[in-house]
Amino acid sequence: MTLAYAGEFDAVLPSAAAATMHVADYEFGGFDTAGTAVDMRRLEAPLSPVITAELEGAVEYLGVDAEVLLIAALGRAIERVIGPGRAAVDVAAAKERSGGGLAVIRRLEVEAASASDVDATAMVQAVRGALAAAAADPNDVADVLFSYGMSAIDGEHPGPAHTLEVRAFHADDALHVDWWYARHQFEPYTVEELAEQFSYAVIELASEALPVAE
Prior knowledge:
Layout: E1 2-4, E2 40-44, H1 49-62, H2 66-81, E3 85-93, E4 102-104, E5 106-112, H3 120-133, E6 135-136, E7 144-148, E8 164-171, E9 174-182, H4 188-208
Parallel strand pairs: 3-7, 7-8
Antiparallel strand pairs: 1-4, 2-9, 3-5, 5-6, 8-9
Helix pairs in contact: 1-4, 2-3, 2-4, 3-4
């Protein structure tokens, strides 16, 4: 599946049938709106320069891509705010983004698990393995989209949209994270808590995960 983030779209894409948990506060009108041009709001939640530096140090120490640690942190945040389970996440990487604004999507399931159930090292390695095995071009849309290193969206979200979109990018010596969410499916305080727990999870994983020999 290829999504074009430019202009308005009327097409409705099917939601991810294989998802084991629904990442949202509410259903909207009795059906899932992932993949539709819904009313999206943005919460800007940059990580501090100190946390950004910790993340960069962990990337070098663990020998993993930054998106691995960030997706693992997203799983931690979802567990703390929404609850435990396995969340379907569509991932778009910067290296897969062309100048025309097209994002090629990979699908993976992220464990939303606490540190007592899955420790930091296992969490990071699970995401690393899932990314390596992720299938490209899924035929449906997950609740959640994650992107790292792609350009920020200026102004209104052009649609179509996932229910929750976590877009991380570097600017001004820090990692900025824009949380786009469907207004009718999330309370603002839920997204604020997700963003807060995400930053805590980045610190936890960056400081506690250990490298694993391949």
